[in-house]
Each structure stands twice: as C-alpha cells, then as structure tokens.
Amino acid sequence: MFRKLLWFTAIAASVATALPLASATQVGISINIAPPAPRHATEPRFRHGHVWAPGHWRWNGRHHIWIEGRWLRERPGYSYNQPQWFRRDGRWQFDGGHWSRRDTRRDGHTDRHDRHDGRRPRP
C-alpha cells in the first residue's frame, strides 16, 4: 500500500510541475532565427462556447517546436488574439496568444460581425 501511495505521489508531483511549463505564454522572446512556415491544417467544426486557437511555432531556447491547435473556452466580451511571430529591428519576436476586451458600441452591444476570430458568422 505504501509503495502505491509513494508511486502515485511521485507521478502527481511530476505532472504538477510540468503543467505550468506547457501552458506558459512566451513573452519578450526576441531571436535571430525565423520560425518555419506555419503548418496548415483544417480548422475543426465550430464548437459552441469555444474559440479555436490554431497551432503555432514556439521557441524552446534551442529551436522552434510546433504547438498543436486547441479549443479555448470563450470569454464573453473578449476577443482572442492568436499567437504570432513578427519581425522588428531585424529580429523575430513572439507575441503569445492573449485575450483583449472587445470594443462595444455606445448602447453597450458588440457588433454582431465582431467575432472572436475575425470571421463573419456562418449563415
């Protein structure tokens, strides 16, 4: 019984320490190596109450690694800004995905075409 408890504790501790690293957003990354071309994949079907965050390249300190796309729970009143690489002053910089408050009209309603992913709603 003690061995099982010790084994379970060791597994739980290793998972708990690995999770924050996997979900951490890279901020302030500036490198000389351009990311590879994005991998193009078919976006999954619409999932109510969620936003699709497409896959992207992330720098791990030595080389670029591909992060698969995933569903994020939608945040009412916010738009999701996808992770992206851009070139500034001759270096490549990474802007991790983040949420930003959506602009609202004076009457307090958001534009019905202002979707979280920038696309118009499907008919």
From TrEMBL:
Keyword tags: Signal
Region (Disordered) location: 91-123
InterPro entries: YXWGXW_rpt
Keyword Signal annotated: yes
Secretion signal span: 1-24
Basic and acidic residues: bias regions: 91-117
Signal as UniProt keyword: yes
Protein name (Swiss-Prot/TrEMBL): YXWGXW repeat-containing protein
Organism the protein comes from: Chitinimonas viridis
